[in-house]
Amino acid sequence: MTTLRVALIGGPQYDQVERCLGDFAQQTGVVVEVAFRADHPGLNRHLAGLLPSDHGYDLVSTHSKYAPSQARWLTDLDGLVDTTAMAPAALALCRPEGALLCVPRNIDVRLLWGHRRMLGTADLPGTWTELAEAAAKASGGAGVAFPGQESGLFGTFFELVVAEGGELFDEEARPRLTCDEAHFALSYLVGLHRQGLTPPDLPEWGYDDVASGLRDARVALAGDWPGYYALMRASAAAGDIEVGRYPAGSARRAVYSGCHGWAIPSRAPHRDEAVRLLAHLSAAASATTDAAQGMVPARTDVALPATDELDQRRNRLLSATVAEDMITFPPLARYPEIEEAAWQALNQALRGLCDVPEALNRAQAVAEEALRPH
After folding, report:
1. Which domains, ranges and CATH numbers included, belong to the chain?
2. Residue-averaged pLDDT of the chain
3. Where are the beta strands (DSSP E) in the chain?
4. DSSP 21-64
5. Are 287 and 272 in contact (CB under 8 A)?
6. CB-based contact 354:203 (threshold 8 Å)
7. Counting Cβ atoms within 10 Å, is residue 143 exposed (0-12), middle (13-18) or buried (19+)?
8. HEC readout, 206-243
9. Average pLDDT of 97-116?
10. DSSP-derived 3-state class of residue 120
11. What is the SS3 assignment for 113?
């Protein structure tokens, strides 16, 4: 009997994958062993330490922004899996330089969520300036939260930079992490924290912490990802929650985005069976399971459920966000190490261990070194 070994991201967006793996085993007789599971940064570090050596994984979960750094050990999936039902924009994100490095699973974008009771109103702020003002008036918990570490912190910083009309990388992918808009963005985030508008331990918060703080009504306002929606609807605070478009800056509205996806290592021991598993995981039935949990499938033939007014409003906002507000990082082979150094520098500023210019100079120096021709 064939056993496929897979490495997956943990957390709400991947909890239901176990059922899909079980269905595949029943249908094919091929056993699937989840040999490694961790949060996304943990999975990236694990794979970077093993590959491209003989790791023994047949399939791994990845993301469109990280796949370029893994290109040297991923299989080009063009022609191996039917992608005709996939959204072209999602496929484009997963094909940064021609090769299809992963098959997109979902499109990940944030919306703004808030508690009417804590805010004293059902109207959510429409701009970052209004968000700070609303957070200052909130009662019963922290006014606002955002990830204070890892990719979530760097992504939030990225959103603010672009929303103010800036860019972290120019058209030739040269870093601009010390631009005026970057100073504004980090100063804004640091200001929220130093004013006491965020949870005291925010520099230790990740995506899961923000989502649970919102669900538990410990936070009045936060951006949240589609993968947490089912948990939100099942929470005690569900009746008090309001959803809105992500805040706009002085130049535009910008939402840090990308696609979770499935990839096959080039040295997969059981490539044919791995392709069958990938086809199963990216089929309409699996996408329908994801949609039921609130995720935005990359397939155009699978719609999000709309059972009530909140569902319908959320679906409209997600459609508008995908159509108008998505921003992505450039496909850089050394992006993970830039992100790692950058978020740590930003985190130091949040903790008050360095000032804003010093944090940005550190991030810029690492990015310049990583992107310097060797």
Report:
1. 3-108+258-302 (3.40.190.10), 111-256+328-371 (3.40.190.10)
2. 94
3. 3-9, 31-38, 59-63, 103-108, 111-115, 142-145, 219-224, 241-244, 255-256, 258-263, 326-327
4. HHHHHHHH--EEEEEEEE-HHHHHHHHHHHTTS----SEEEEET
5. no
6. no
7. buried
8. CHHHHHHHHHCCCEEEEEECHHHHHHHHHCCCHHHEEE
9. 96
10. coil
11. strand
Closest CA to 181 of 248, 256, 110, 251: 251
What is each CA distance from 324 to 81, 109, 363, in whole angstroms?
Answer: 29, 11, 29
Check residue 54 and give its pLDDT.
Answer: 61
Q: What is the mean pLDDT of residues 108-134?
A: 97
Own/partner long-range contacts of 77-84 (Cβ < 8 Å, ≥24 apart): 77/101, 77/102, 77/103, 77/263, 77/264, 77/278, 80/264, 80/275, 80/278, 81/275, 81/278, 81/279, 81/282, 82/279, 83/282
d(CA 219, CA 54): 45
**pTM (two decimals):** 0.94
The Cα-based distances of 58 to 8, 46, 73, 261, 320 in angstroms read 11, 15, 12, 14, 36
State both tokens at 350. 């949040």
Tokens 């990830």 label which residue?
Answer: 147
Tell the residue number behind the tokens 């399939």, with chain if given: 59
pLDDT (tens digit per residue) in 273-321: 999 999 999 999 999 999 999 999 999 999 999 999 999 999 999 999 9
CA 193, CA 207: separation in Å to the nearest integer?
Answer: 17
Report how far residue 130's alpha carbon sits from residue 121's, in angstroms, rounded to the nearest whole number. Answer: 13
- CA angle at 137 for the pair 133 and 140, rounded to the nearest 5°: 140
Rounded CA-CA distance 224/207 in Å is 8
Distances (CA, A) of 305 to 26, 224, 292, 295, 369: 27, 18, 7, 10, 46
